[in-house]
Amino acid sequence: MEIDKAIRESDDTRLKTKYNNAVYVIQRALALYSVEEVAFSFNGGKDSTVLLHLLRAGHYLHEVGKNLSGDGTEITFPIRTIYFESSSVFPEINSFTYDTASIYKLQMDIIRLDFKSGLEALLKAHPIRAIFLGVRIGDPTAVGQEQFSPSSPGWPAFMRVNPILDWSYRDVWAFLLTCKVPYCSLYDQGYTSIGSIHDTVPNALLCHSKTNSNEHNYKPAYLLPDGRLERAGRVKKGTSQPSTATSNGFKQDDSHLKRNFTASIIAVGDEILFGTVEDRMMPILCRKLHSVGWAVSHIAVSRNDIDSVADEVERLESTCDMVNLLQYESAFIVFVVCGEVFIYGGVGPLPSDLTVAGVAKAFGVRMAPDEEFEEYLRHILGERCTGDRNEMAQLPEGITELLHHEKLRVPLIKCQNVIILTATNASELENEWDCLIDLMPTNGLLVISEPFISKRLATTLSDVDAAQPLSEMCCKFPDLYIGAYRESRGGSLIITVKGKDKSRISTAADALCNKFGCKEIE
């Protein structure tokens, strides 16, 4: 069988492992259900093309294993194939689907109804109990699915069989190119994920030149360097770009400069609570946030425990603009800013590396292997980062995106509004923050507002004498932060005035100097 032979002769050990696991799932399904009770959903895309040939190989090996065709007789492909034809499908997809059916002699049922209605009609007409699907982790429909998953409530009852659930974009193309099987021509024109004609365009990341007629030329899909961006072409054709960018749900025009974005920081780690580790990164993070116009409103320390991390992230991410978990040495810091979540640290093999699992629990999703992230870890750790039980490469399922930057050894991990950084000290935090700022225009990670500016004043007044006048100044300047502290009990009272309006800060500082006889300090 040509598919099995091509994989066996390949030097790609990971592809061999993926192939063997997928074939095992197929053979297991064929042992549980008769051929008449299974079907294969084919849509002409790359994933279902891979699944078609895995089914051909799996069925062949299943029949050979039963010694039904040991004499070399050709084994036909008897599994019922269903194709949902639509007026919004690309003509190239239609042509490829019908050509494939002809080449491999598929028993293809053409369904011209929506998916749910079509399945209801199909299951009424045939005794189908299981359907093979080309679903992969990262697909919108993949969250919560296993290799064998019953259909969702409200749908016709059948078993969803997902042989390539744990395959990455790289695995899909490694299989297609290794086996030299035909695939839809759109993938050679820069399309990396194909939906309908209304919501799919070539992936701009593969654009490499323009013709004399100002048309773009695209590299083929298998040259996409980052498989996480395969759905970057899923945008509506003809949609014009808005005049102002949108990030975190807010328009980035001049109005955002005056908006106050607030952040919370949660330190997660028993070492901080024990006093073993002194947290040096939190002040740096506060200053970085202030430099882009964000105020920190909440700081807490949580136990180094999955439930504790999950509870804090869940509580704060629903009320803030951003959340960020950090790690200092063996402790973690969660930084929560309204709408986005940043996390650095907690990715590793140690028992204390629980941050990512805590985030997964906060969002109610499971941890699942991430092939793209495993590739990066393998480059760093070599053969110590292999195998299906590689917990370091387990990320929250269905909500994870990798953020790449040339200055980063390992990409940052984004889970919806949570970004997981990998810094473990102040210098690494500085580098990752700079990378986040660089990535902001393309990923909308942070809304940059006017930075906070401040003045510090010193007075020899006692706390009792300063209390009432300071309260009056706070009422007079409600748009500013006015606070006071002492560096020592016998030292001067330091008054801080902070805000975004330089003229207002100067006016308040002058008023304080007149009232208290203060002097400005650096």
UniProtKB/TrEMBL annotation:
<dbReference type="Pfam" id="PF01507">
    <property type="entry name" value="PAPS_reduct"/>
</dbReference>
<dbReference type="GO" id="GO:0005524">
    <property type="term" value="F:ATP binding"/>
</dbReference>
<dbReference type="Pfam" id="PF00994">
    <property type="entry name" value="MoCF_biosynth"/>
</dbReference>
<dbReference type="GO" id="GO:0003919">
    <property type="term" value="F:FMN adenylyltransferase activity"/>
</dbReference>
<keyword id="KW-0285">Flavoprotein</keyword>
<feature type="domain" description="MoaB/Mog">
    <location>
        <begin position="265"/>
        <end position="323"/>
    </location>
</feature>
<keyword id="KW-0067">ATP-binding</keyword>
<feature type="domain" description="Phosphoadenosine phosphosulphate reductase">
    <location>
        <begin position="120"/>
        <end position="202"/>
    </location>
</feature>
<keyword id="KW-0548">Nucleotidyltransferase</keyword>
<keyword id="KW-0547">Nucleotide-binding</keyword>
<keyword id="KW-0288">FMN</keyword>
<keyword id="KW-0274">FAD</keyword>
<dbReference type="InterPro" id="IPR001453">
    <property type="entry name" value="MoaB/Mog_dom"/>
</dbReference>
<dbReference type="InterPro" id="IPR014729">
    <property type="entry name" value="Rossmann-like_a/b/a_fold"/>
</dbReference>
<keyword id="KW-0808">Transferase</keyword>
<comment type="pathway">
    <text>Cofactor biosynthesis; FAD biosynthesis; FAD from FMN: step 1/1.</text>
</comment>
<protein>
    <recommendedName>
        <fullName>FAD synthase</fullName>
        <ecNumber>2.7.7.2</ecNumber>
    </recommendedName>
</protein>
<dbReference type="InterPro" id="IPR002500">
    <property type="entry name" value="PAPS_reduct_dom"/>
</dbReference>
<dbReference type="InterPro" id="IPR036425">
    <property type="entry name" value="MoaB/Mog-like_dom_sf"/>
</dbReference>
<dbReference type="GO" id="GO:0006747">
    <property type="term" value="P:FAD biosynthetic process"/>
</dbReference>
